[in-house]
Amino acid sequence: MTAAMIDICFNFTHTSFRGDEEAVLQRAVDAGVERMIVTGSRIEESRECLALAQQYPEQLWSTAGIHPHRAREWDAQSADAIRDLAGHEKTVAIGECGLDYNRNFSTRQQQLYAFEAQLELAAECRLPAFMHERDAHDDFVRLVERYRSDLQAAVIHCFTGNKHQLQAYLELDLHIGITGWICDERRGHHLHHFIDIVPDERLMIETDAPYLLPRDLSPKPRDRRNEPAYLPHIRDTVARLRGASPDELAATTTQNAERFFGLPQ
Predict the structure, then answer these.
(1) Helix (H) or strand (E) holding 100
(2) Is this prediction's pTM over 0.90?
(3) What's the pLDDT score for residue 49?
(4) Which label site among 68, 106, 166, 196 has the fewest CB atoms less than 10 Å from its CB?
(5) Which 8-state DSSP code applies to residue 238?
(6) What does the pLDDT look like over 186-240, one tens digit per residue?
(7) What is the DSSP letter of 11?
(8) DSSP assignments along 145-181, one per residue
(9) Which of 139, 170, 155 lies closest to 95, judged by CA?
(10) How far apart are CA 252 and CA 245, in angstroms?
(11) 3-state DSSP call for residue 259?
């Protein structure tokens, strides 16, 4: 039997999951994905993440934070709200926080302010930082460099960048989260050429469900909704590219996630 896996990014608060929560979790467990991190991207959503983790305590843990798309929502109460959520044992990281200059749903100034505030919270609460970056590499690196020594741990989730960017993140001692983007021959094939430079102890895998359904998954679900049950497909792709067996890759990434999020081993 292949080692059990942990999906480090599951957007379980998405409305598409409200009709079949238990079935989604059961399919995940049946596929060997025994634990999942439910990711918060707004204050209210982070509260929903915690509620789901408390409702399904064997399978779920949660994060608390404000995504860069929502940085404009950061206000005087945001830090206190995240601090309160961080006090629950089921909350295992601060985020999803970071910078996204691809769409700029919030201004760059708003994003930088909210990101820095959440890095400060991660350091204060002694929780890992769960981070997002898109088209904002230089600003992202400058800000993380400033706080990295104060952070217990940090992961750049859903890495889709180039080799130079990956090397910069590794120099910052970041963990790297890989999604089904690596299975996309149009946009993610470049990752095949350097995914093997990530040290074993820094690698984790994720679905980012319901988004980023692996493009080469067959058969595909009719609704095109991604879910944690498809994490083995990502595991197999990453294992092949790194010259490892699926079982080795699963065991390594699970151990990394357990250490990173402080999960029971």
Answers:
(1) strand 91-100
(2) yes
(3) 98
(4) 196
(5) H
(6) 888 899 999 999 999 999 999 999 999 999 999 999 899 999 999 999 999 999 9
(7) -
(8) HHHGGG-S-EEE-S----HHHHHHHHHTT-EEEE-GG
(9) 155
(10) 11
(11) helix
Rounded to 5, what percent of the chain is helix, strand, coil?
50, 15, 35
Q: Which of 225, 199, 245 is nearest to 19 (CA)?
A: 225
Q: Which strands make up the sheet holding 203-205, listed edge to edge?
A: 5-10, 33-38, 60-64, 91-100, 129-134, 154-156, 175-178, 203-205
Tokens in use for 41?
């991207």
| Residue that wins the pLDDT comparison between 2 and 171 | 171
Mean pLDDT, the chain, as a whole number? 96
C-alpha dihedral sign at 143, 144, 149, 151: positive
Query: Counting runs of H as helices and runs of E as strands, what totals does the chain give?
Result: 8, 8
Q: Which two tokens stand for residue 7?
A: 């999906």
Matching residue, tokens 């025994």: 34
| Nearest-10 Cα torsion for 64, 10, 111, 184 | 160
Q: Are 86 and 46 in contact (CB under 8 A)?
A: no
Residue with tokens 């980023």: 212
The domain defined by 13-261 carries CATH number 3.20.20.140 = yes
10 Å Cβ neighbour count for 187? 11
